[in-house]
Amino acid sequence: MMKLMFASDIHGSLPAAERVISLFEQSGAQWLVILGDVLNHGPRNPVPQGYAPAQVAEKLNHYAAKIIAVRGNCDSEVDQMLLSFPITAPWQQVLLESGRLFLTHGHLFSPDNLPPLATGDVLVYGHTHIPVAEKRDGLCYFNPGSVTFPKGGFAPSYGLLEADRLSVIALNDQQVIAQVNINP
């Protein structure tokens, strides 16, 4: 059974990136899925604690062979020059036995602007910095929240897919924030 870990909106925070890497190593996940906004804090965000984009890139590059990433609205070609794994695709797909995960940052495709999806598919996105794990109208929606700039009163968080269950988990205390089963 495939196990995936999801992180979104690192925004160049070295402490957040180090925590994600530590949790990835402990998780037993085969892949670390990064849902964009990797290195740059962006013009609407404050400079995060431990802002060190070059060091974040260096840390993540050690795991390049195990990272699947998509481009966020704060990612650029200059960021790609620092990273050993591709981040310029606006979306990726992961095929599961029961459907697919459509991976995107959330600024182009989102619950309000869906890509072509089939019943049973999962839209996995970041961008809003708000955790989501729910089913609606035959689709599953999953947002692991943000590891650096959580919003909506939530703790910094990440996601896991294990045995057809998607979970949003608090980065620091490992409490489950939200869960949804992909299959009925």
TrEMBL record:
Keywords of this entry: Hydrolase, Metal-binding
UniProt keyword annotation of Hydrolase present: yes
Encoding gene, per UniProt annotation: yfcE
Protein name per Swiss-Prot or TrEMBL: Phosphoesterase
PANTHER family recorded: VACUOLAR SORTING PROTEIN VPS29
Entry-linked InterPro entries: Calcineurin-like_PHP_lpxH, Metallo-depent_PP-like, MPP_YfcE, PdiEstase_YfcE_CS, Phosphodiesterase_MJ0936/Vps29
CDD domains: MPP_YfcE
UniProt cofactor(s): a divalent metal cation
Boundaries of every Calcineurin-like phosphoesterase domain copy: 2-164
Pfam family, one: Metallophos_2
Keyword Hydrolase: yes
Family assignment from sequence similarity: Belongs to the metallophosphoesterase superfamily. YfcE family.
Enzyme class (EC, first level): hydrolase
GO molecular function: hydrolase activity
Top-level taxonomic group: Bacteria
